[in-house]
Design a protein that fits this description.
By secondary structure, the protein is an all-alpha fold. 53% of the residues lie in helices and 0% in strands. It has helices spanning 3-6, 24-36, 43-47, 49-59, 73-86, 98-108.
C-alpha cells in the first residue's frame, strides 16, 4: 500500500474542508432550520460541508437571550461603586438595559 493510499480524509489539508462529507448531525440541524422557516436546503449545500455550514449560519434563528440587553456584572459593580462614592442612587431601569447603565456611568463618573 502506498503512502497516498494510506492517507484518509482526516489527514486532508484544512483548505479541503469543503471536500469532507456532510455529517448527520449537521444535516439534522439544517433540516430543523429549514422546517421551521419553510425553506429548502439547496442541493449543492447538501453535498458540501462548507456550503451547508454557510447555509446554516445564514439561516439559523437569531433569538437573543432575554438577558442579552442586561448590563454585565462588571458594569453593575462599577455603577454601584460610583453610587456609593457620589451618594447617588442608580435608577431601577438601568439594571434592565446596559445602554442606560452605560449612560448613567458616563454621567456620574
Amino acid at each position: 500500500m502506498t503512502n497516498a493510499a494510506r492517507q484518509s480524509w482526516f489527514d486532508a489539508p484544512s483548505n479541503d474542508y469543503h471536500m469532507l462529507p456532510v455529517t448527520d448531525r449537521q444535516m439534522r440541524y439544517a433540516r430543523a432550520i429549514a422546517e421551521k422557516s419553510a425553506m429548502e436546503i439547496p442541493v449543492e449545500a447538501q453535498r458540501d460541508r462548507k456550503a451547508l455550514s454557510d447555509w446554516i449560519s445564514a439561516h439559523k434563528p437569531r433569538d437573543p437571550s432575554p438577558f442579552a440587553n442586561y448590563p454585565t456584572g462588571k458594569q453593575v459593580a462599577f455603577a454601584e461603586r460610583i453610587s456609593r462614592t457620589k451618594r447617588r442612587p442608580i435608577p431601577a431601569e438601568c439594571f434592565r438595559d446596559k445602554q442606560m447603565m452605560s449612560q448613567w456611568i458616563d454621567r456620574n463618573k
